[in-house]
Amino acid sequence: MPSAPKGTCHQQKHKPISLLKVLPEWKPLTNKELEGLDEKIKDQFGWEQGPKPFQSKAIHAQLKGLDVLVHAGTGSGKTGIAAGPHVHPKSKGKVTLMVSQLIALHDEQVSFVVDDGFQHLPHYPG
Q1: What is the full per-residue pLDDT of the chain (126 aa) written as tens digits?
Q2: What is d(CA 51, CA 49) in angstroms, rounded to the nearest whole number?
Q3: Which of 13, 87, 110, 122 is the most exposed place for a label (fewest CB within 10 A)?
Q4: Does residue 1 belong to any structural domain of this protein?
Q5: Would 52 be classed as within a structural domain?
Q6: Containing domain of residue 39, as a range?
Q7: Number of domains in the chain
Q8: What span, in angstroms and rounded, lies between the C-alpha atoms of 1 and 110?
């Protein structure tokens, strides 16, 4: 067996798993399929006004299969952007991985999804 490249400390000893073979097939949604989603999110999360425009835009973009990067302040609603796509029926069984370096923020995110009926599996390092 060849040695590991210089500067590395280990070799890969197993064949990588292709996520494309493990995950169910998913197709980006159309604008027609996204109609009424903001109202569903409003009802699911109990929001008075529904998602803010930046939240709606980010949620819709995710469901259209686009990459999304959101830079927003503390308390502005980023957790809602992560949870929002799961309200759409075609997201059933999908997974969102949320990573936080702050345990308090992690607990708030888990509380948000639990209160709204989503499954969660918290993981704390250490």
Answers
A1: 555 555 555 555 556 656 556 666 778 999 999 999 999 999 998 999 999 999 999 999 999 999 898 988 888 988 899 889 999 999 887 877 777 677 776 677 666 655 555 555 555 555
A2: 7
A3: 13
A4: no
A5: yes
A6: 30-115
A7: 1
A8: 45
